[in-house]
């Protein structure tokens, strides 16, 4: 999971976008390795954010944004996961999703729930783009649908409801 799939033209990420991608990667790493948030945060800040790793240059990221997402997801996971479960169909429980997809959804839902200063459209677009970096099939559509459902529920905004 360390590198996104190369799928044609990729938009260049801004510092917050790079922080979101790094947070998703860190959440994935924590999920599969069992590492703690402090260990992973220190590793990413020291060796990954804006650094070259195995010949690939990580974009400069907003380290404060990265930390906020990572710690926010960890601290709020007990409230985030049920919100994701409610937005999924019954035949797709959260446990059925792979670690990368869970990380994307958890980070996106965290921002929708706790970062009201960030517009819904920005959050949904950024996390759909992250999903597109890792998946070529239906996963980006799933991320879009879940985040849209959550945004309508927690913010009263989304495609299914007029935001005016």
TrEMBL record:
Alphabetical list of SUPFAM superfamilies matching this protein: NusB-like
InterPro entries for this protein: NusB-like_sf (IPR035926), NusB_fam (IPR011605), NusB_RsmB_TIM44 (IPR006027)
Pfam family for this entry, one: NusB
GO molecular function, one term: RNA binding
Superkingdom in the source lineage: Bacteria
Domain NusB/RsmB/TIM44: 19-152
Gene Ontology CC: cytosol
Any one of the GO BP annotations: transcription antitermination
Keywords from the UniProt entry: RNA-binding, Transcription, Transcription antitermination, Transcription regulation
Family recorded in the similarity comment: Belongs to the NusB family.
Role: Involved in transcription antitermination. Required for transcription of ribosomal RNA (rRNA) genes. Binds specifically to the boxA antiterminator sequence of the ribosomal RNA (rrn) operons.
Protein name: Transcription antitermination protein NusB
Gene responsible for this protein: nusB
């Amino acid at each position: 999971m360390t590198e996104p799939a190369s799928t044609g033209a990729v938009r260049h990420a801004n510092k917050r976008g790079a922080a979101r991608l790094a947070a998703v990667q860190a959440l994935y790493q924590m999920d599969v390795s069992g590492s703690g948030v402090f260990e992973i945060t220190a590793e990413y800040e020291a060796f990954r954010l804006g650094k070259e790793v195995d010949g690939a240059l990580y974009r400069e990221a907003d380290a404060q944004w990265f930390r906020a997402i990572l710690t926010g997801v960890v601290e709020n996971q007990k409230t985030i996961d049920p919100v994701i479960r409610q937005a999924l169909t019954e035949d797709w429980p959260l446990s059925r999703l792979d670690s990368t997809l869970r990380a994307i959804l958890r980070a996106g839902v965290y921002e929708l729930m706790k970062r009201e200063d960030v517009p819904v459209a920005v959050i949904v677009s950024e996390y759909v783009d992250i999903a597109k970096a890792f998946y070529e099939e239906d996963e980006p559509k799933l991320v879009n649908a879940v985040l849209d459902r959550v945004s309508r529920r927690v913010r009263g905004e989304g495609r299914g409801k007029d935001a005016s």
